[in-house]
Amino acid sequence: MAQQAITAMFFFLTFFGMIFGIAYFRNRENMAMIERGMNPRSIKVAPKPFISLKYGLLLCGVGLGLFLAFLLNEYMTNHGAPNREYPQIYFSLIALFGGLGLILSYRIEKKEWLDKKTEY
Question: Residue 103's domain spans which residues?
């Protein structure tokens, strides 16, 4: 019972400290901008037109990696050593195909950027 109370108090204090820290540093950043003569509310966030492409290709790569890992695991379990699973296949193929999805996204973004640059 005492352990649960200590754990709950720890999480409460950590959450409070995180909220306080975010507010404190945001206020300091705004004050530094005001001291330099900038208006903190006039900062425009640049649009990110390819963010959905990046996440889409990343998730497609992860899904393809999971599917291929499942097929390899089933093949190796049925034709290789019986009663043995290979979890490392899942991690490696998720990372591999997720990375390939991000590389593909980068190549598409770079091609689009170079095409726009040559138009001007």
Answer: 51-119
